Amino acid sequence: xxxxxxxxxxxxxxxxxxxxxxxxxxxxxxxxxxxxxxxxxxxxxxxxxxxxxxxxxxxxxxxxxxxxxxxxxxxxxxxxxxxxxxxxxxxxxxxxxxxxxxxxxxxxxxxxxxxxxxxxxxxxxxxxxxxxxxxxxxxxxxxxxxxxxxxxxxxxxxxxxxxxxxxxxxxxxxxxxxxxxxxxxx
Length: 186
What we know:
Blueprint: E1 2-6, H1 11-23, E2 28-32, E3 35-38, H2 44-55, E4 60-61, H3 65-83, H4 92-100, H5 104-115, H6 119-137, H7 142-148, H8 154-165, H9 169-185
Helix pairs in contact: 3-5, 3-6, 6-8, 6-9
């Protein structure tokens, strides 16, 4: 039985779901972003209890088909940006349409209606969050980050970063370095 879970966006979320399933004695075959496949059929009471426990951590079981589809869009984008090493070879719109077997216009309208933001803006905001993470890790320079996240150029990344955050990637990196220096002084 497949359980669809809202707001499940990271490895920690997977661990929380696995823990709650274990506590309830439910056996799972897989737990991925946005879903868990369990062996048993669960009773309405078990479903309610599991949902209550998940809500305590910001997660939630989903039933509504529009909510489920919107979460799938979010999970595909998050997976693509944060966990995939392969470069996107087609437009995001084509990629989402292919993955979900829906017309992109339908997906875009539904997403905007449900989230109050366009798919493109959600994608860009998540890319910028990933850029911030990579800058903080300090393993890659801006050029390497630009390539890794499939930007057409460093200038494109920098412009988008500044538009979203109000500062350039270099200024963001400098803020990180200043915090590190101030922490060492104290």
